[in-house]
Write a structure and sequence with these properties.
The protein is α+β, with helices and mostly antiparallel strands.
Length: 324
């Protein structure tokens, strides 16, 4: 029972790349934030997760999950995850209102899950992004009570992630550190699911241009696998990138940010690296950057994309799922 987490993440971004609320073709700058903005940022993510689980519980029965290989008490635990997300929405909305700040509202979403297995797989990806979002935002929170609350939500999201990963046959804790992402990086991933609606709150975040991984018949293995970024060189030309401009694929794994210089594939508009860095594992993020040393928003030209990476010599024995 395995559906590639990398394939799920790629499908999630590509199927909604035309989101009306996301502009992906211009330069992105680091936003200025305060605690109110951060709370609304977190509320935006929690609304998305709540709706994701709400739809699944409406569309699939306990029997559907059992038939797909997720035996009891998985369905019961899934309902508990939904309650957690609902509680997070109520808490954050209430905290904003109490502070005299207008809270954002639930929008319209598109999720590319088509059956139980693709739903659970996408759940693992979304929960991982949630952990990275809270972790990345923590350093910007000024109010200590808000910081404690965010940390409390973060640990619950991390337990969700571990449980879902274990249910999929993946390592529940593949790395000794979780991976922080900044506001624009998370927004680039999460806002892709937004298909409509309007909010009384305008957040100061921007989405990077989309980064697409070429589908592969192999699992990604640290210090061994190659990665091709489909159409990435052609897209990078919007940023005055020429054939001789050095561009780096920067892999975020735990607290590491590891750059690998890309090359243009022969006669192609793609970028490619021939070997993933050593020492990365689990849900890994990758962006394309003009710098090999400074990885702030101003240097990023595309991404993030998400890969599920296995330690060298530890790829699954089951065949890799087919590309869609």
């Amino acid at each position: 029972m395995r559906l590639s987490l990398t394939l799920a993440a790629s499908l999630a971004v590509s199927v909604v790349q035309a989101s009306p609320l996301v502009k992906r073709d211009g330069p992105v700058t680091t936003p200025k934030v305060d605690d109110g903005i951060i709370l609304n940022y977190a509320l935006t993510l929690e609304y998305l997760e709540r709706k994701f689980y709400q739809d699944a519980l409406a569309n699939y029965t306990q029997a559907d999950f059992v038939a797909a290989g997720f035996k009891d008490p998985f369905y019961t635990n899934l309902k508990e995850i939904y309650v957690d997300e609902q509680t997070h929405v109520s808490f954050l909305s209430g905290a904003l209102t109490a502070a005299g700040i207008t809270p954002t509202v639930e929008l319209q979403y598109t999720f590319p899950a088509t059956d139980v297995l693709s739903f659970v797989t996408l759940s693992s990806v979304l929960e991982g992004v949630g952990v990275s979002a809270y972790l990345g935002a923590a350093a910007s929170i000024v109010n200590k009570e808000y910081l404690t609350a965010a940390g409390s939500i973060l640990t619950v999201e991390a337990r969700h992630t571990s449980y879902i990963r274990a249910s999929l046959g993946e390592s529940p804790f593949p790395a000794p550190f979780d991976t922080p992402l900044d506001f624009n990086e998370v927004f680039s991933l999460a806002a892709a699911f937004i298909s409509g609606g309007s909010s009384p709150v305008t957040l100061p975040f921007m989405a990077f241009p989309m980064l697409t991984l070429q589908c592969t018949q192999y699992y990604y293995e640290a210090d061994r696998s190659s990665v091709t970024f489909s159409g990435a060189f052609k897209a990078a030309q919007k940023f005055d990138v020429a054939k001789d401009t050095p561009i780096y694929a920067v892999f975020f794994s735990g607290l590491q940010k590891l750059p690998v210089q890309v090359r243009i594939t022969a006669g192609s508009s793609d970028y490619k690296i021939d070997r993933l860095p050593a020492g990365i594992a689990g849900q890994v993020y990758v962006v394309l950057s003009k710098s090999s040393t400074a990885f702030n928003d101003e240097h990023i030209i595309a991404g993030p994309a998400i890969l599920e990476v296995y330690p060298k010599g530890q790829i699954p024995s089951t065949p890799h799922p087919k590309c869609h």
